[in-house]
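DM from R.C. (forwarded with permission)

"hey, sorry to bug you on a friday — could you get me a structure for this? deadline for the figure draft is monday and I only need the backbone to look sensible"
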Amino acid sequence: MRLNRPPGVATNPEPARGHRVGAGVVRTLSVAAVAAAACALSALPAMAASAATGTVATTTTVTNPANDVWVHADAGVAVPLTASVASNTTGGAVPTGTVTFVPQNVTPYAAIECTATLNAEGVGTCSVTPPTGTWGFILYEATYSGDATYAPSTSTGEHKVITWDITATSLTFAPSPATVGKPDTLTATVTDEPKDDLAGAGGGADQVTFYANGTAITGCSDVNVTDPSDGPDNVATCTYTPTAAGSVSIKAAYLGDDYALPSSATETLTVDSAADYSTKTTVSVSPKTADEKQLVTLSATVTGGTTPTGTVTFWVSTRKLCVATLSGGKGSCKAAFPNPGPKTIVGDYSGDSTHKTSSGSAPLTIDK
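My reply, with the result:
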């Protein structure tokens, strides 16, 4: 898994999925005091340090809410860390002194380490603030200082504070507009604040789901984001075939992971009608020979596919004569001609949602 870590971060397996907490919520690392003879630590076992001469050993524990060893936080926001120190002797006095929280997978520095003084219950709390612009995890260990009665001890187990990677998703279509019945490629590009690779590793790939008018598109759910070695970084693609003309609201939702926040984009895809049927336009004139300024009926019959609808526009050279609306594939209108001589009448069919355009022509003679 990609990690944009504070200085010195070492690679560490990503946390299991299902431990993600809502964005913007800072959770406190809570502590339960543990008596060595009373209960066994199931989630975060602790080991007692060897007792110094003349002292009694203690157990130091660090736990998160509900024994969840991963806590999400926002970079730049303080995160409380809490530890509990208990005597390993039944009925022993409450330990005094301090506990220090030290990062184990990064080089410690002031913002991400802290020391707390134990209270009357042997509990110490202090806060760290992962710097703005960093993301990934910090693995903590709590070390008890010891006192006149008790020896130092150090907690064991993984105690992670995870800061979110902020992402943004964009969406494009190819071709655009789309055509009814023809596949269109939807492309989601997910960028993240550190400009790093979002393609998952360790058994979990980051994913995008595509929706059309609020419904997940068949075959477009949980589409893996591509790995840089396989193609463009942080990109997921899917093929969508629209079934009706009009506008479709397409959404691409990046699902996020244990380190990255979810994000999404919604765009409108325009879908044109399919013009699948070729047509033939036949033009006729009546009469075929007419006098100057005599009205001539110009007719067109359009065939092909089902019954074509639309209009036929009649021309002589670049002069528009009249427009006929088709009914049952046929249409006619009238025009007069002031100048004698041979003419070529052209009829241009407009096409409709399922029929392609076509043209036809017929000769006309105008006598003096």
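R.C.: lifesaver. DSSP finds no helices and 26 strands in the chain.
me: no worries. The two ends are 89 Å apart (CA to CA).
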